[in-house]
Amino acid sequence: MRRKQPSAVAGLPSSSVFLVGFMGAGKSSVGRALGERLNWVFEDLDDRIEAREGRTVAEIFRDSGESEFRRAEHAALQQIFQELRGGVSMIVALGGGTFAQGATHKAIQDSGVPTVFLDAPLPELWQRCAQQLEAKRPLMTSQTRFRETHKARLPYYETASWRIDTAGKKVDVIAAEIAAKLKLKEIALRTEEGEVE
Ligand code: S3P
Question: Bridge partners of 93?
Fold first, then answer.
């Protein structure tokens, strides 16, 4: 699979970013920090799914299975695309599997919104997930499954527009690195000044 450089296609503004990566990559905490830094809306796709479905992610997996979760995930993302077309500047933390679902991956790539892959070594990802006991992850059943799922998804993650190595780094440092790499401060200032993109 090829890395796709972002472009302003599909009528979506470039002042938005999708954070992708495996469970424990820090998508939500980095996304929140980046949103605060830029004064942009932060959205967690899992939260959006839960609000739309009226059930937690764990309940959807338990009662309806993964395929129903993926349908709900794709539908929630379509709703976010709709809002982006309305001109909202948004940082969106995707779920660990979102960018690795064929149709959803294509929809994200076709949107032209820049994607940032938050990368970290597998043992560190496992460690971080193990420490976040409050985040119930239905797919975190064993280290073997964790490793195999990560291996299967890596080719998708590697098609992201940007890759950030997060190993051993603090959330604010990662957020600052993303902002600098994608020149988001400049974009935020331009947007605040009302310039047309
Ligand atoms: C999933 C990761 C979770 C959540 C769901 C499925 C996955 O999100 O979307 O449990 O397939 O890896 P996080 O990456 O935020 O844990």
Answer: 19, 44
